[in-house]
Amino acid sequence: MKIYVTRKIPQIGIDVLEKAGHEVEVSPLDRPLSREELKDAVAGADGILSQLVDQIDGEILDAAGKQLKIVANYAVGFDNINIKDAQVRNVLVTNTPDILTGSVADHAFGLILAVGRRIVESDRFSRAGKYQGWQPFLLLGQDVSEKTLGIIGLGKIGSTLARRASKGFGMKVVYYDRDSVNKDLDQEIGARAVSMEELLKTSDFISVHVPLTPETKHLISTPQFELMKKTAVLINTSRGPVVDEQALLEALQKQDIFGAGIDVWEHEPELTPGLAELENIVITPHTASATIETRDNMSRVAAENINAALKGQTPPNLVKS
Ligand code: GLV
Ligand code: GLV
User: Fold this and answer.
1) Range 4-19 burial, b when 16+ CB lie within 10 A, else e
2) CATH code of the domain occupying 2-98+292-310
3) Which of 101, 159, 160, 297 maximizes ligand 2 atoms within 8 Å of its Cβ, making it the mutation to test the pocket?
4) Which CATH superfamily is domain 101-283 in?
5) Does residue 22 carry a catalytic annotation?
6) What is the pLDDT of residues 188-222, one digit of tens each?
7) Which of 138, 176, 287, 312 has the lowest CB atom count within 10 Å?
């Protein structure tokens, strides 16, 4: 059967598809496809292996045709796919959870350390030739160990970060999750479920791990920044629009919080004007899952989901609306 891959990905997944006897076409363009290009490219495909920047809705699914069985997203997040449009057309949708949990949690912790200890700012300072010798007050940051980490959204990534922060750095963990209390985690590391308000008021570091939905858009905005400690650090490795980036800019400019680390931006690839000029933010370009090992695994898992669906099986990572 025919599989269309919307952008070059690690070869391992292509091999998995070809070994199953499928005919694989990979976009030759090393950039996201325009909507028109995507519509043309997917025509006749039985499976689409999509990127998180591809907006997949009924129009794209119809352009593919009635034979289309599966859209396998090369990402854990799937807010770029209209699940209802897929369901009414009997098209399965899958993501790549689990295998990227560790690398995203590592990246979130990297941002915690980078912002708390002003590592990137210190690097800029050093490279600019500004260092004139040791000083008692040079580039003072915030301790990370033993501090309180507030996790918003306790899925796999949030709970993995919680364990690492507690076991490795002795952090106290509080969390807010709309629909889960994790008794095992509470027992294992002494984590505590709290209200959103208590989390915002008491945490030294706050890390966001919710999917983007209409309910989570701008979950963190001016009222939430106002509740945070002056010394708080906000980390976002989930989806950009979960944080109101204009409100973040203002909170950082007014030093209402100590700093922020963002891997995802509200209007990727555009950054809210003014953010890049601030010293108290560390910005990475949506690379939290970007390790060689994880990207290989994402490629393999996306391909395995397609193979299962095309054999008429339920793919391992089927998502529902
Ligand atoms: C990356 O953002 C992903 O959802 O995998
Ligand atoms: C989703 O982001 C998860 O927690 O795995």
Assistant:
1) bbbbebbeebbebbee
2) 3.40.50.720
3) 101
4) NAD(P)-binding Rossmann-like Domain (3.40.50.720)
5) no
6) 999 999 999 999 999 999 999 999 999 999 999 99
7) 312
